[in-house]
Design a protein that fits this description.
With about 150 residues, the protein is mainly α. It contains 3 helices and 2 strands, in the order ββααα. The protein has a two-stranded antiparallel sheet.
Length: about 150
């Protein structure tokens, strides 16, 4: 949806960041009206009809072209809205499924996640550091003996 700002006359004007949005039915109607008018003028002049006849038929083609294009635009707009609604629904359902999967995974782990600290007692942390140092030292000693 286009952002709008109030002008000094109280009307809304499109924001500088977003171009104005032309509704699909109006755009389709205008395009078909212009095309039918142009074709009608070209065909009328090519067939050597009088100017009044060419212009009256071209204006009739313009009006009918706009009505037909507007109806086609309404159908297209409805199809787009249905598709947007379907995509939003499927996105919401997949989000719910992801949340349910995350909750189930946490339940399987007994509420543990990858960042939970199981034992933060300083004695156990110091013991782990000593064990790590001993493993590293023994690995280096083995490497020296092998060489």
């Amino acid at each position: 949806m286009a952002m709008t700002q109030r002008t000094s006359k109280g009307r809304t004007a499109p924001s500088a960041h977003h171009p104005p949005r032309i509704p699909i039915p109006q755009a389709a109607g205008a395009c078909t009206a212009f095309a039918s008018f142009t074709v009608s003028i070209a065909v009328g002049l090519a067939s050597s009809n009088p100017t009044e006849t060419v212009l009256s038929r071209a204006l009739l083609a313009l009006a009918l072209g706009f009505v037909g294009g507007f109806i086609v635009g309404l159908v297209c707009d409805w199809i787009v809205q249905q598709e947007v609604t379907r995509i939003e629904r499927s996105t919401m359902e997949s989000d719910r499924a992801d949340e349910a999967a995350r909750a189930a995974a946490e339940d399987d782990l007994g509420g543990l996640t990858g960042v939970d600290v199981l034992d933060d007692d300083e004695d156990s942390l110091a013991a782990q550091a000593v064990q790590t140092e001993n493993r590293t030292a023994s690995r280096r000693l083995r490497e020296k003996n092998v060489q």
